[in-house]
Amino acid sequence: MTDKARPGDVKKVVLAYSGGLDTSVILRWLQETYRCEVVTFTADLGQGEELAPARQKAELMGVREIFIDDLREEFVRDFVFPMFRANALYEGQYLLGTSIARPLIAKRQIEIARRVGADAVAHGATGKGNDQVRFELSYYALQPDIKVIAPWREWDLNSRTRLLDYADQHQIPIARDKRGEAPFSVDANLLHISAEGKVLEDPWSEPEEYVYSRTVAPENAPDRAQYVEIDFARGDPVAVDGETLSPAALLTRLNELGGQHGVGRLDLVENRFVGMKSRGVYETPGGTVLQAAHRGIESLCLDRGAMHLKDELMPRYAELIYNGLWFSPERRMLQALIDESQQQVAGRVRLKLYKGGVRVVGRQSPNSLYSQAHVTFEEDAVYDQRDAEGFIKLNALRLRLAARRDQK
Does 368 participate in catalysis according to the annotation? Predict the structure, then answer.
């Protein structure tokens, strides 16, 4: 069975559907071009949008099977938290908010395709970006014989004007306020919100304040710092300020706290997997707080060797997620190592939020490897300082031999 979809050989397709202009046009285009039944799937990942209009529009366009799934808890529990156990950062800065959502959407699409007997899936990612890769690598990893339809790589509707003309010609309802040219493209979920394109394409131009929606400007944040305490168990956060919360509720709480203090803004030029550089403006308030807290508790609980090995592997792990390889064997292998390292990572971290910054100011753990008896500057009975002499001489031996050779 070939995975190349062609008009005439697809009977039913599951479309990742938001109800916006692009995916509404895609829905009609699939019906017209492939003459197949279209099933729509809309994922609630905490993007903060009303999803009922997506159902109404799909019904209006003749869709009989409509799936709108609340995936917020699964998203945070099974995708965000495992990633944060690794302290993953792409190119040293990006917390992978868009990247980590795509494998979950793809997974659910494949599950729906199996349930309804669909032989194809479709997405609205363009042929220039990373998301097409992330969706399709996930599809094939989960269902190797699935047919994939990527309209942006097939059609000639390559401008907003053409999309609107198509919508008018095919009686696709588009909200009046959506007809104006959007100043930038937005992707949102419970972990982050990103803005790209158009007014943001010049990397020299500072983003206007209207680009940001999840955080206040740091200079306008409260003049008084706020303290927050996060409890961890096996590397995952479980409570905020003593209140036990579900994964999605916990991240929501941290988003609120971080956003109030202007935490988590990032203006980044990154290297896309497809080869070009792009400029993105990201807001990840809760994730920024959470990563600082996780590193804080790890500093007490992780052995030096384990911590340093994790830090060496982290860029590779982050790159795998960025490139769409969540379901790859190597990501699973790294995850097993990371999860093993987290067995003793438990305790409480206290953080200080102020004017866009987040700092760890306290940490405690029942599994702490920190020994005040060993590090004290006062007299102690557990550490013989004379032992350091032999330790230093053995580590210096190769350096001394090389220096003697070079001085001849």
Answer: no
